[in-house]
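debug: dumping io for the single-chain case to check the tokenizer round-trip. Nothing else runs in this session.
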Amino acid sequence: MKSNPLLQDARDPHTQASAGRAGAAFALPRRIGARILRELRGALPPTIFFFVGFNFIVLTTNLLVARYAVAVSNFMLATVAALVVGKAVITANTMPFFKLFDRAPLIQPILFKTAIYWVAVFFARLGERFVHFCIEGNRPQDFVAYLMSDFSWHRFIAISLWIFVLFLIYVTASEFSQLFGPAEMRRLLFAYRPSELQLNRRQRARELMRLNRLEDEHEVDAFRDPASAAHHKLVEIIERLARTRRPQP
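debug: decoded output
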């Protein structure tokens, strides 16, 4: 009986090894592409936020000095600064101690992450200035002397203060978004009415207090019994919480 050569090729260890190498060769670019895409997604929100923020600062500053026929900055510089901030955010997010205060009161991670972002952007901006300094034909060892003598520290510090304020706003919004969830934040901003939101909070607080008292009064086995009064009260509280969770806009 003749054997099928296709089956022999499939069982051939050399063929299997070649297929494994081919799969690994295709898997590496896929992993690299997925990593790059993940970093771009992480850098996109701060880049867009600071792109809008920096251009707003440029617009208002140029309006203030328009009578003197002087342009303090321009759209291109604001765009480059936003890209620098986006790259700095990616770098800061990879630091092992970045989530050190995630379980602390909310003010601590907000201030800590704002400071980390600000320091990262501070050195990134100095690095950008160093690259321009070298491109202009200067020697790298003269950069420190340039910082001491000719560098515009007043402008650099003023922009750094604006970056700190913008980072404080960005991190605060980001922390609240992580706390409530993006969907809940959208409902808070665009769906809930203020009166309904306050009523919803009071109702949820009352139901949670009832749930806490019910938990103290009964054992776990009582909640598992569908015929018990504790089970019925638990179901009623959960139904009321579900009704107050999403008020109609």
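debug: round-trip ok. Residues 69 and 197 are 50 Å apart (CA to CA).
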